[in-house]
Design brief:
By secondary structure, this protein is of the alpha+beta class. It contains nine helices and four strands; from the N terminus they run βαββαβααααααα. Strands 2-3-1-4 form a four-stranded antiparallel β-sheet, sandwiched between helices. Helix 3 crosses helix 4 (93-101) and helix 6 packs across helix 9. Keywords: DNA-binding, Transcription, Transcription regulation.
Length: 187
């Protein structure tokens, strides 16, 4: 059995695309999840080269070094936590990362900051704000329900964090999206 680590897998569509490419190459795939592929056997160097070429063309990247794999795992855990889990529990992000990656949080935090040029916390906040944007655009939940779903302590805290990151209040963002006046990068 062989495990490959793949950078830039962020959604279920990414999993489907990677699975499809692995199948096209005739690789015996056991499982594909965010950032990680389990193969029944080690691919040949020719298969690895072909896979690397195909994935690079699609915006993915096979990761070889240990530090990059850890960084990608941190990102994938955060993305999964924010976008794909309905979090009923108020767990501490540092505990989740330490438990899942079997490393001290200080090590993970320093490594992430050194390689990514930002902190784990800022990355986590950015992901949460993206999820808030998504939920605002869907217009199915109130701001209070969104705050609750994403484990914000209050609507005010969500609004403040949203404004710090986007420069807009959630209601202004929603209005702009509804009016379709101009893209956010033009505001």
């Amino acid at each position: 059995m062989a495990t490959l680590f793949i950078k830039n897998m962020v959604c279920n569509r990414c999993i489907m695309v990677v699975q499809n490419e692995l199948d096209k190459l005739g690789l015996n795939v056991k499982s594909v999840k965010l950032g990680e592929v389990a193969l029944a056997e080690e691919p040949t160097s020719k298969q690895k080269d072909a896979l690397t070429e195909v994935l690079d063309a699609l915006g993915f990247e096979v990761i070889d070094d240990k530090k990059s794999r850890i960084i990608e795992k941190i990102k994938n855990i955060i993305i999964d936590l924010v976008h794909y889990q309905d979090n009923d529990t108020k767990t501490n992000l540092s505990d989740v990362l330490s438990d899942k990656l079997h490393h001290d949080y200080n090590y993970l935090s320093n490594l992430f900051s050194e390689v990514e040029g930002t902190t784990i916390e800022k990355y986590f906040i950015a992901q949460r704000v993206e999820k808030v944007k998504e939920l605002l655009v869907y217009d199915e939940l109130s701001l209070s329900e969104i705050a609750d779903r994403l484990n914000y302590s209050s609507v005010a805290y969500l609004s403040n964090q949203f404004k710090k990151v986007t420069g807009l209040t959630p209601s202004h963002f929603k209005q702009i999206k509804e009016d379709k006046r101009k893209p956010l990068d033009k505001v």
